[in-house]
Amino acid sequence: MTVNTNEALRVAVIGMGQRSYIARHVADAVASATDLEARVTAVVDVTPAGRERGQAEYPDAQVLEDHRALAGLVDAAIVTTPDWTHAEIATDLLRAGIAVYLEKPLAITVEDADAVLNTAAETGTPLYVGHNFRHAAVVRLMRQVIERGEIGEVKAVWVRHFVGNGGDYYFKDWHADRTKVNSLLLQKASHDLDVIHALAGAYTTRVVGMGSLSVYGDVTDRRDRSDELMTDWFSFDNWPPAEQTGLNPVVDVEDVSMVMMTLDNGVQASYEQCHFTPDYWRNYTVIGTHGRLENIGDTGGGVVKVWNHRRNWDVQGDVEYPIDGVEDGHSDADLLTMTEFLRSVAFGEPTSLSPLAARAAVATGALATRSLRNGSEPIDVPPLPEATLRHFATTSVPERTTR
Asked: Which of 332, 352, 333 is nearest to 397 (CA)?
């Protein structure tokens, strides 16, 4: 794919739902660079309300109903549609020669994820998956601690994810329906599964899952919210979880899940996710041959602590590093991912995040879901075709992974 960098990149936004605000960082990326030109010139949404939002957000953009009408109109597209549509839209765009920024998860099954990657490899069209949390300040800080050797060689990674907003975020719309998301080990956990791989320096090869629908399945107050956005109903007053109202008509995804992983370099990892906790944050513990690290808080204002001397119980640790960045959300990481994507399209610069990593996260989450719904049987991750692996080895900088 060749783009005329003498002109601004023409960018489309596909899907004007809750996550579409990521496209606002196109303008931010341009403002923070001296050599990058890009602008949103088209908006696509299948709903009248979405098209209205798109026209209001981007009054100079062409508004369309079908992503297939973008062929020849744009150079790149930012796909922020619901999860189950990702694979079809991405493969259509890639075949049309349109570079794709695909919001995570890459797909909701291993098979669909592989289809997207294989299409990108066959066509040579740039593909980028929005695993923005890799760029979050807390993750960058933990990776720096590991790479400096402060805890030695990583041998175990444990992650606890307290999804305090889970009832509002995931159980009042299509996220609660497994036909639309497969499970929240994809929509929600794909960030953390990817970070586990980044911290451990390897991808998962065998996975076991456990989980259940423990609380929200018993809530009988349901209604269709297909014409609403999450901001229409979100409130910290929606508590306790069992007293939530207006849940999605279909609620069949697990609200508590656990995943055990063996990575290809021998690292053992675990991930736990709960959607009915009162607090909302991620806690990582990484244990190496000379110590361990743990984050307390996962945004600006939090810290990463390191223990590397033997002792009894001690909450202080030996070293404490402050987490820089935003104090809520991940807008700083969003900007970094968008900038990386646009520069890769405009100038052919390699990206720091490979779509292979996005596929590894999908494979882990999807196969853990299959495991937990089939008696927690261990499942091995299937390999990608060699041609696809070779293609993506040339489009991103080498990662600290062996698979």
From this structure: 352
3-state SS, residue 285? strand
Q: What is the pLDDT of residues 54-110, one digit of tens each?
A: 999 999 999 999 999 999 999 999 999 999 999 999 999 999 999 999 999 999 999
Task: Kindly indicate the confidence band of residue 5, based on its pLDDT and cuts at 50, 70 and 90.
Answer: low
Q: How far apart are CA 148 and CA 144, in angstroms?
A: 6
Residue 394 CA from chain centroid, whole number: 22
- Rounded CA-CA distance 302/321 in Å is 9
> Structure tokens of 13?
């936004």
At residue 156, does pLDDT exceed 50? yes
Q: Let me know the angle formed at the C-alpha of 373 by 371 and 377, rounded to the nearest 5 degrees.
A: 30
Token pair for 128: 């980028």
Residue 4 has pLDDT above 60, yes or no: no
Question: Average pLDDT for residues 10-26, to the nearest whole number?
Answer: 94
**295 forms bridges with which residues in the sheet?**
304
- Full-model pTM: 0.93
Q: What are phi and psi of 295, to 5 degrees?
A: -95, 140
- Burial string for 82-120 (b: 16+ CB within 10 Å, else e) reads bbbbbbebbbbbbebebbbbbbbbbbbbbebbbbbbbbb
Q: Rounded CA gap, 87 and 100, in Å?
A: 11
Mean of the per-residue pLDDT values for the chain? 94
Per-residue b or e along 235-247, where b marks 16 or more CB atoms closer than 10 Å to that residue's CB: eeebeebeebebb
Can you spell out the DSSP letters for 201-239?
Answer: TS-EEEEEEEEE--SGGG---B---TT--GGGT--TTS-
